[in-house]
Amino acid sequence: MSSNLHPMLNVAIKAARAAGAIINRAALDVEAVRISQKQVNDFVTEVDHAAEQAIIETLLTAYPGHGILAEETGNTHGAKHSDYVWIIDPLDGTTNFIHGFPVYCVSIAMAFKGKIEHAVVYDPTRNDLFTATRGRGAFMNDRRIRVSKRTQLKDCLISTGFPFRPGDNFKNYMAMMADLMPRTAGLRRPGAAALDLAYVAAGFADGFFESGLSIWDVAAGSLLVTEAGGLIGNFTGEADFLEQKECLAASPRIYGQLVPLLGKYSKFASAGEKAALRQAGERPATAEEADETKTSEASDMPPAQDGESA
Asked: Which residues make up the binding site for Mg(2+) (predicted)?
């Protein structure tokens, strides 16, 4: 750990490496790992729990007055009303892990009054450590990283995550991919959103988008991206995205090209944009959207004249 780093970032690195050691030991005999299912296609293992416990113990030993928001245990640990909150995903990419597919990571972010100040994403299979502190840049293994310099979408590699939960809008995602695939050099689905964001920060991928993500999936990665010179928000380009379950990240030039393509698929798109998509046959309306469209159409009608029925 470096003496040049902020003390909180040093503690987060210590916690991430402790979790990574647990994950790497378990990966030697992954078939012996006990697995349970939170919901269909959403798995949790004893390794997730052990890694999360190691992270929380490390953080609270150093900062007992801080709050904790963790994927598996929520806010049951730490102070309940602290301005300092650690946001933890102990093993992002659990499905990859239990199949022995070596794309997963530990994600730890520290938020002060709701704003991410420090971030660590640690890939234990490659021993790659991504770190950032607000205003101090983003780093991979102590080397400064920057987002990609590519300026045309046709040259870009874009990463994403496929929907996998019951109730996810699969048709919507297929339409998004059909829109993007012909316009890019390739679309990839590695399976760990925090690592996807770290790779955007490092310039390994030019952009990333996914819906259905939780705050612990994106908190650390969001700071890596912005400190590496990138932009991150929801599909319509709004920056206040952390708890909106929509994430789009890219270098500024590519972000500007992705927002017009993906914005119409956002749950925050205008009623007109949603209606245009439905007319194009790209996705069905939800009941909520149908009501929204009716309201919008009614408001666009001219006022009734005398003697006319409103």
From this structure: 71, 89, 91-92, 217
